[in-house]
From TrEMBL:
<keyword id="KW-0479">Metal-binding</keyword>
<comment type="similarity">
    <text>Belongs to the inositol monophosphatase superfamily.</text>
</comment>
<feature type="binding site">
    <location>
        <position position="66"/>
    </location>
    <ligand>
        <name>Mg(2+)</name>
    </ligand>
</feature>
<dbReference type="GO" id="GO:0008934">
    <property type="term" value="F:inositol monophosphate 1-phosphatase activity"/>
</dbReference>
<dbReference type="InterPro" id="IPR033942">
    <property type="entry name" value="IMPase"/>
</dbReference>
<keyword id="KW-0378">Hydrolase</keyword>
<dbReference type="InterPro" id="IPR020583">
    <property type="entry name" value="Inositol_monoP_metal-BS"/>
</dbReference>
<dbReference type="Pfam" id="PF00459">
    <property type="entry name" value="Inositol_P"/>
</dbReference>
<dbReference type="GO" id="GO:0046872">
    <property type="term" value="F:metal ion binding"/>
</dbReference>
<feature type="binding site">
    <location>
        <position position="85"/>
    </location>
    <ligand>
        <name>Mg(2+)</name>
    </ligand>
</feature>
<dbReference type="InterPro" id="IPR022337">
    <property type="entry name" value="Inositol_monophosphatase_SuhB"/>
</dbReference>
<dbReference type="GO" id="GO:0007165">
    <property type="term" value="P:signal transduction"/>
</dbReference>
<dbReference type="GO" id="GO:0006020">
    <property type="term" value="P:inositol metabolic process"/>
</dbReference>
<protein>
    <recommendedName>
        <fullName>Inositol-1-monophosphatase</fullName>
        <ecNumber>3.1.3.25</ecNumber>
    </recommendedName>
</protein>
<feature type="binding site">
    <location>
        <position position="88"/>
    </location>
    <ligand>
        <name>Mg(2+)</name>
    </ligand>
</feature>
<feature type="binding site">
    <location>
        <position position="213"/>
    </location>
    <ligand>
        <name>Mg(2+)</name>
    </ligand>
</feature>
<dbReference type="InterPro" id="IPR000760">
    <property type="entry name" value="Inositol_monophosphatase-like"/>
</dbReference>
Length: 264
């Protein structure tokens, strides 16, 4: 059953990515959802294409998709719930920075069981199935086993929706930056998580996340052998708007620092 969900997720992500590629050179109308938070016709058109594939294949399943249904369903922990980000990296898309993705996950009883993060411009498809593993373009992927902070690269997102936390975020950034070999802010949380899963970076943290940013990516990291928690170290990061995802040796160090600076 989960394998069937993964097939649908892969088809749905591809349908969204096709739409985004076709709109890459179009002049877009950019609307504000909130200050510093944008939506375009591309987000909406991609979402329509993704949802069509899901509803054609599973007409009875519930869907939480960024541009059409923001509320956490009351019984989100029961049965199948699809979680969709039709364009992760909207600000990159608007600025023609070719680092964007479509993220599609199927959750069962509150946990992601199948997930895809599709890099739209590089055609890198990261996908995972609970209990079976994670792949990049059909090759199995694993997190790194690097335990040396000074050799590690961390990925993050800036807290542009929670600027009240900026000073604490910068204090954390400084502490980590002094210890690691590199930090990156690329603009797609879903791809950040996929990169940790693929061993391209050792860890990721961000505050102010939504479930559609992370549902597929967290499964990728877990299935690639990494660890995903909220800043307090709890297992339930999907709905908590904060996430630490890392390889096994560095997770607790990163999580404890996030906790120290960002949990009040
Ligand atoms: C955003 C991206 C970004 C992250 C933000 C997300 P969007 O998603 O993932 O990297 O820093 O927290 O909201 O708005 O482009 O779908
Ligand atoms: Ca997103
Ligand atoms: Ca989005």
């Amino acid at each position: 059953m989960s394998a069937e969900l993964l097939n649908t997720a892969r088809k749905a992500a591809r349908a969204g990515a096709d739409v985004l590629r076709s709109m890459w050179n179009q002049k877009l109308t950019v609307e504000n959802k909130a200050k510093f938070d944008f939506v375009t016709q591309a987000d909406k058109a991609s979402e329509k294409a993704v949802l069509k594939v899901i509803t054609d294949n599973h007409p009875d399943h519930r869907i939480l998709a960024e541009e059409s249904a923001h509320e956490k369903p009351r019984d989100a922990d029961q049965g199948v719930l699809w979680i969709v980000d039709p364009l992760d990296g909207t600000n990159n898309f608007i600025h023609h920075i070719p680092h964007i993705s479509v993220s599609v996950a199927a959750c069962r009883d509150g946990r992601p069981v199948a997930g895809v993060v599709l890099d739209v411009t590089r055609d890198e498809e990261f996908y995972a199935l609970a209990g079976k593993g994670a792949w990049l373009n059909d090759r199995p992927i694993k997190v790194t086993d690097c335990a040396q902070k000074e050799k590690s690269v961390l990925l993050t997102g800036f807290p542009f929706r929670v600027k009240s936390k900026l000073d604490d975020y910068l204090a954390l950034f400084k502490t980590l930056f002094l210890e690691v070999s590199g930090m990156r802010r690329a603009g797609s949380a879903a791809l950040d998580l996929a990169y940790v899963a693929a061993g391209r970076a050792e860890g990721f943290w961000e505050i102010g996340l939504e479930p559609w940013d992370v549902a597929a990516g967290m499964l990728l990291v877990e299935e690639a052998g990494g660890k995903v928690t909220d800043f307090s170290g709890r297992d339930r990061a999907l709905w908590n708007r904060e996430m630490v995802a890392a390889n096994q040796p560095l997770h607790s160090w990163l999580q404890e620092n996030c906790n120290r600076f960002l949990v009040s």
